[in-house]
Structures are given as structure tokens and as C-alpha cells.
Amino acid sequence: MIEANESYIVDELSELGVSNEQIRGFLRKFSGWRIYIRKKKSEYDEIRTLYAQITGSGVQRSDAIRKLSEIFEKSESRIREITREQEILFEF
Hints:
Elements: H1 6-15, H2 20-30, H3 39-56, H4 61-72, H5 76-89
Helix pairs in contact: 3-4, 3-5, 4-5
């Protein structure tokens, strides 16, 4: 786990275009907090989004799985499980 202090967060928020007033409000609201942002959820969301884009462009599922496996350094079976979760959500 990498720990980031307030100066790192301020720099990153500034780089994203967040105003100084909003940054001060953010720091005021969360000062003293220890925040942990789970990688798993955001990574899974990114995998699902890319999967939808890749397959939406006409690429076969197996090729999309293989490419995502390379990008995210996960096994093809794990990528299948992650993308299968998405497909189940939309079944009627």
C-alpha cells in the first residue's frame, strides 16, 4: 500500500483541474482521516468498461479476454469471471 500525504493529494487534484477553493474544502472535510481506496473495485470497473468497448467494436469475446488479460496481468479465467459478473447483471 502506498501512503499519500496532503501535498501529494493537492498536486493530483490540481492536475485534474479541481479549483483551489474545492481542494481547501476537501482538505477541511477530510483532515485527520485515513482514507483507503480499494484497487479491486475500480480495476474491475475499468476491466468491464474496456471489455464492453472492445466487444462493442466487433472483437470476439475470446480475443477481448486475452487482450484484457495482458493489460491487467490477470489470468484469462479471472477476466472471464469479472466480465461474466457484468453479463449476469443485465440478463432478463
